[in-house]
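During data preparation, we tokenized the protein backbone, and the record follows.
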Amino acid sequence: MRFSILGETLARHDDGTAVPLGGPARRALLTLLLVRPREVVTAERLADEMAPDGSLSAHALQSQVSRLRAALGTDVIERAGAGYRVAVDPQDVDAGRFERLAVEGRAALAAAEPERARELLREALELWRGPALADLAHLPGGDTARAVRVRLEELRLGAVEDRIEAGLRLGGHREAVAELRELTGLHPLRERLAALLIRALAAGGGQAEALAAYEETRGRLADQLGSDPSAELVSLHRELLESDPSPVQVRPPAQLTSFVGRDGEAAEVAGMLRVARLVTLVGPGGVGKTRLSVEAAGVAADDVCFVELASLREGSGLPQAVLAALGLRESGLRPGGGQGPVDRLATALADRVLLLVLDNCEHLAGEAAALAGRLLAVCPRLRILATSREPLAVTGEHLWQVRPLDDEAAVRLFTERASAVRRGFTAAPGPVERICAALDNLPLAIELAAARLRTMDVADLAERLDDRLGLAAARANRGADERHRTLRAVVAWSWDLLSGEEQRAARRFTVFPGGATAGAALTVCRGGGVAAGAGVLGSEVLESLVDKSLLELVGGRLRMLETVRAYGAERLEEAGETASAGGAHTRYVLELARTADPLLRGAGQPEWLERLAAGHGDLLSALGRAVGDGDWETALELLAATSAYLWIRGVSGSVAERAAAVLEAVGDAPPAGLGEAYAACVLLAAGGPGGLAPWRRHRARAGELLAAAWDGDGPGGRYPVVLLLWMLRNATEPDPLDAFALVSAQRGRPEPWVRAVAAYVSGFGPLGAGDPAAAERAFAEAADGFRAVGDGWGGALVLDVLAGMAAARGDRAGAVALTDEALALTERLGALEDSADLLVNRADHLVDADPARAGADYARAESLARRAGGSAALAAALRGLGDLALREGDPARAERLYREALERSDPHWVKSAGSRVRALAGLGRVAESHGDRAAARARYAEAAASATAVVGGADPDALRLLGLPQDVVDRVAAHAS
């Protein structure tokens, strides 16, 4: 007989049939006996456990025992002295088996046998059917039952942890994350679960999320227990900080179907890429260029970045699209200055071995050619594989003409795709050959036709295609234009077979430039302008479009092939729905942005940044539509509502051109009530190439309107992030005091984030006035405020300042700790350039006490900055390595590093000023080491001039504002003119 107490108490015969146990009293009694099989439990203890108030008499207990013995057999429950026992093997009780399996599983884990451990632990945990000792839950509870229940539940949780640990060792980090998030929510103070979650996130490439999980755990332990994380967690955190966070670049899309008929071509294209640095696959739409590029890239290279350009409507956005595919930001967390996107790409790819796939270049051929030419010229290890309907016409380009499939491959493709939609599909060769011939053997046309075999047979399909397309007897003489017409005719035929509701959904879906979630698609496709009586669009319509290959589901998002999308857009125009569908799309984007804006200032920041980034193309499309229609109110609202996302994500440059166009149209008189949005527009226009002109022209008016929006009591404006951006941008202007006063005045606002921003900005007043203690109090208040709301962006900014202040007063350990906290936040945001800056700062704090560790930080900063394409951060890292080389007695290496640092730095940008001055001073010290005093004096004077150009002077106080160490301050100040 087998017994179960891990859940409801059960007894079963060996054949599996259940034994009726009776009511709750008897089940409770049996549970108490099964807790310790073969051990005697006194009648007195049983009575106390079941009825602590003494209401269960000895006679009543004896009666319950007798009834249990009648049900189970007299040999199962025995009388022994003053009590009773169950005479069963502990392994016949599920709790006993669970404990044995859990112990064996943990031993296998310790013996480095994760697969066996996982099997044992899964078997152990499958024994649980509910809470332990569930049939004792209704009792007031005695010490025995409570202690056993707690012990079993603790063992269960430990077994779950061991099972997850085994899974992580076997590479199951992705599937573990969701379970671990749930478990850490249930057990927020359990450090092993937190460590497992952190490891799972880091193993999946989510280093930023892993650091965020550590910070959340650390905060909970401090708040609720007043304790620090365990040594294991601290060590894990240190590993995360010391590893290089890799940007998550877009890989070639995973293919859900077999690759038919082109294996040899893929190998040949891969071979061509070994000798040519630019290969373009040329051919008509639907011929299979994209699929061939994916397969060839998989053969040709290990490191591949895939850039999908079909949804990009303007060539000016091409560099930003490549940056986004590489997982790189256009800028750091602070606005102003810096490189353009092409320069950033050139820096990021300068020394990298990479195959860049540019897919669907035909509508951007000129811009794609210019960018490819520039990058190939300055990035010697870069190769590019492009797909286009026409050559890019770049020097050195090798062309591969992609032709339709041969007859045999076309028939095989049709048969395989038909078998996927109709189980057991068979057909005579003749009709299939006729179908493929009519379709010019174009892969996309074949796939669209095969999808129709759900509802018609092969003969019917062949007949309909003959009627629609005509026989293809002259196919061999057809050129690209004729094949394009064939594909268009197949798309039109597939379209005509859709129901009216499906056609409406498909044509309205075309307003999404790069696909959409099902929820977004339903919202927009159900939008205004729908004919009376059309009914409410249901999700089953979208599912039907997927079934018919008009839509495809990729990575949780629906997307439409560009050939189908172009045809659907024509049908949208023909139906007179372009304006209504576009309006519904714009309203959706704007409402999503408005919903996200306040959440980007709190703990939901990472999640909402990712969600908005997935729909970045929708923002560009909606903004372009508003500008094109002259709808300046909507354009301003879109820019303001997305400003926080654009800056924090580092993609503000992608809208700069549109923002400038809005300013050109509205001048200094924006629509009523949109003064704050106007200020956001000015900031965004200033962040792009040529942004200085709109900034100079509109800055004063924007400042007036922003001040008006935040004047008086109450909640203030709608978009608080604009306040912080306004201050950061104005900080480098000759007259920043108005901006300082505006933001500092907001310390009494009701929103905690606004108060934190105001405290942050307020701290610079006493700092400039020589009162560091008051400044530090304000900055600490700001840091606490940003921590409380969970904002990593603001938190990173203020922690960096606090770290500098700690270092200035000699608290190097405090400076390092604050920098570590800031690093966790910047890596959570994917701000690699800012992380590199912080690593340089940390190294500067460490260099006197621990030169080896400082050197490691400088080297990591250099690696990160190169990967991010950040020239200012790279200059700072090279300067630090130069300082270290000079310390180590290697002036020649120091000189090389200083010179490269100067080449990378912008002499007019405040962010580069400190590195530039220190590199020039370093060259002065190199000259001194050679005994060349004249050269040294010249370098120190050059450093003083560089500082003066940025901060207005080279006296010691001005130089300290650049964060320079005292020895550099002394040398440079002594040579100021």
Remarks:
- Residues 471-479, 529-534 have pLDDT under 50 and may be disordered.
- DSSP finds 46 helices and twelve strands in the chain.
- Residues 143-169 form the longest helix (27 residues).
- The first strand starts at residue 2 and ends at 4.
